[in-house]
Design a protein that fits this description.
Blueprint lengths: L2 E2 L5 E2 L10 H31 L5 H10 L7 H15 L6 H14 L8 H12 L1 H12 L13
Antiparallel strand pairs: 1-2
Helix pairs in contact: 1-3, 1-4, 1-6, 3-4, 5-6
Length: 155
Amino acid sequence: MLLCNMENKQSAPATVEKDESARPRLIALREALLNLHKVLIESERIGYEKTFGKIETSYQLLHLLTSDPWFTWLRPISLLATAMDEALDSREPLTLAAVNALVARAKALLTPTTGGEGFSQHYDEAVQRDPDVLFAHVTATRLMSPPVVAPKPVA
């Protein structure tokens, strides 16, 4: 829907604040989140195999990821990635507010907490034990900072 002002110029509705950097920022964060998820799965797979024996097939790993309590703590990352996919694939325009809300969810989720419970506790343990997880964590969290906007020159 387009609105016209007094000079008969078209503009976007005031309720949809757009930013051209919103979509690329969300795409980059989603890719970093998926990489972090992959690294976490691999880290947990190694621990699982040390305890219970080798996971023989990709199908067995997928089954464990969806049903075994060892891996259930990873679900919040899967859900966040799904929410990002839905926002990117939606027919509705991607707004700056929607991207900022997803970034805020990612920040809240990817905060390792010593002595925490649930996801934050497991996440803290993974970040502490596995340098690959730490590296993927740092990469993702850097993308959650607000983009730096160069000041416009004063004329």
